[in-house]
Amino acid sequence: MPGGKEKTTQSGSLRSTQAARKASTTQTSEKSAKHTLSDVSSVSETSFESGHLTDELGSIKRQLLEIPTKKDIESLRESLVGRDELKTLVTDIVKGVFVAFEERIHEEMEKRVERLREECDNKIQALELENESLTNELKTVREANLKLKSEVNTNKTIAQEALKAANFNEQYSRKNNIKIFNLRTTPKQDLRQDLVTLVEKDLNVKLDPSDISAIHRIPSKNQNLRDNPVIVRFSCAEAKVEIMKHKKNLKNNVHFTEDVTKRNLELMRRIRESEGMESAWYFNTSVYGKTKSGLQMKFDLFDNVEQRIQKESNRQKR
Questions:
Q1: Torsion over CA of 64, 67, 71 and 77, rounded to 10 degrees?
Q2: CA gap 71, 14 in Å, rounded
Q3: Among 215, 175, 213, which Cα is nearest to 195's?
Q4: What is the distance between the alpha carbons of residues 38 and 40, in angstroms, rounded to a whole number?
Q5: pLDDT per residue over 285-313, tens digit each?
Q6: Quick one: CATH architecture of 175-259?
Q7: Domain boundaries, the chain
Q8: What is the pLDDT of residues 5-57, one digit of tens each?
């Protein structure tokens, strides 16, 4: 290090000065010694003691020469002061560099943060505009959706009412009909006369052929099925009612049923399969059901059976 090198140089100079002084003292001592020998004849008996004292003085002098002088101390102090100043200077320079670097870094960071803040503000602004646009679009879509739902519900209600009316009209047109199952098919069969004979024999009901407005077998896609069901339309309701009163007396596995529409048959199936319902039946163009608790009720074509049962049960509890 520069400070160490300077210190070594100063110490070497001090030692050189001390060595020169020591050499000068040695030469003086040698000269004194030569002078004493040349005059040995005039030395008294105390010469030995003087020589010993001289040696001691020389030793003390050499020791004194080894002690740094005021000049040496001043020179060393000046060197030390210069080194402290250099250290202070270096420290100040380093601090200045760090301060400048810190200020530059801080300035760059502020610029970058400001740039990022501007970018974020721009993006947030764009997102806010996009969000506002999407909100308006969503509002429009919701309004349109609500309108469509309302229209769908209205159309559904209209369609259901139309189907109810169509089903009722269809069922009403069948109110004088009965459906016959397992009536044997014979060659050149006269269904009208066979029916008159059957009800008179099994049911003891007198029936005029003119009471039968129409009678025919229902076509079937199953070619192997010979005894297809038979549809009978009576010209008056009284004839039908009289026959249906005694239908339990039919023989040979022949039985009569009401001519129920397909939609009413589906409603009766749903009622029978519903939990809590005991039975379902058709009567006079309407469908009825009976709960396991004995409650009887009339069902509409699009009724939710479970909800109707719950609603009627709650009403009965009141």
A1: -170
A2: 10
A3: 215
A4: 6
A5: 899 999 988 889 999 999 999 988 888 87
A6: 2-Layer Sandwich (3.30)
A7: 175-259
A8: 444 444 444 444 444 444 444 444 444 444 444 444 444 445 556 666 777 77
